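Board notes (copied after class):
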Amino acid sequence: MKRALCLLLILLFLPAAALGGALSQGSSGEEVVRLQSRLMELGLLGGKADGLYGRQTASAVEEAQRLLQAAGYAVQPDGVADSATIDLLFEPAAQDALLTLRPGCKGERVKALQNRLIDLGLLQGTADGAYGARTAEAVSAFQQRMLLEQNGVVSPDTLDQIMSDVSAFFADAPVYFDESNPLSFTWKSLYAPSCILIDAPSGQVLWEYEADSRRYPASTTKIITLLLALEYGRLEETVTIPESAADIPADSSRVPVSPGEKMTLRDLLYGLMIRSGNDAANAVAQLYAGSVERFVEQMNELAARLGMTGSHFVNPHGYHDAGHYTTARDLAIAARKGMTDPVFCEIVTCMSYTLPSTESRDELVLQNIWEIFNPDSEYFIPGAAGIKSGYTSAAGFCYVGAAQRDGRTLIAVVLGESTRNRAWIDLRRLFAYGFALN
């Protein structure tokens, strides 16, 4: 009896590979290396073949099984590489099924497809790696333009076409915009789902697209926080950082500042804008208004005074909340107001600022490292000056920026960008268009 029980326990704890040749999480060795190498060849697994069957390998196997099942093969997407799954992974006749992308697929290959569809102007939003209805619709739109069967499924041949030079069919796509001719700019040249370009001195709108659409602003919210703080003044006053500075979500951006730390309000505002510190935003709110809640009320009152009719704020930093929103037009209004204030301009255009040491920390150098200010970057924008970036997964990448050339100052706002680099491209094109106008 004891011997039988011991044998049962041994069987229970044997690796799956020892029980009928299956590989699963916890398996290791040369067979796992061989499996991982094949998954990498198929584009289903990144990294390197380390011989350790972990979560990423299991996810890649599950994705392969999902693809095979969709093609009619009798496998279950459970992430366990049984003998049938392994055989199919190496079966030439099954390769097309493994390389075909369709609704329900996930992973890096889907993300690469989505990024290409965004470049072609067929898909908006972020490349999240999940092949859903939006991606299928974008694929169908590509197939329609290319006179292919519109089934929303990407075979290896279709993928090759999507990734090839299709400028003859998509001359108006963002990726093919001719930047040597800035006045040919149209809404189809854009990646952003919402943007605006204005002349700063006059407020004249030079270009707009969905400028009144409600969007999440992320940390561009801090433009309003800074405007309100500057109304109060007292920038050289030394203050004690309140407890509210620590009352922010765990994944917030920070200066950092700590409750009880002493510094000037000026230093705090530089931390607010250059480091985009949510801790600084809460500290500013309580120091100026007595509480974060009262400060937020005043933010909304300021927005109303400025004519920002499409905005509502629920916090001073922009951390995502469904009730916290604005528009590209409203942010342009706020930025234009700010750029008339020398102190606002000084703070939002500052490239480097040193916070003196305090009892809580050593001297801290704050630096603005965005590519649009770096002459060696492919995204450099001549004359770019400030103002504020923002990002959350719900908002996408957002930017409010100014540029100055030949005595002119323009302000541009882009919201909901899928990547930071696409935001820089849109900003460059907007500014080039504006400066090319007579």
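Comment from the instructor: The chain has a mean pLDDT of 93. DSSP finds 15 helices and nine strands in the chain.
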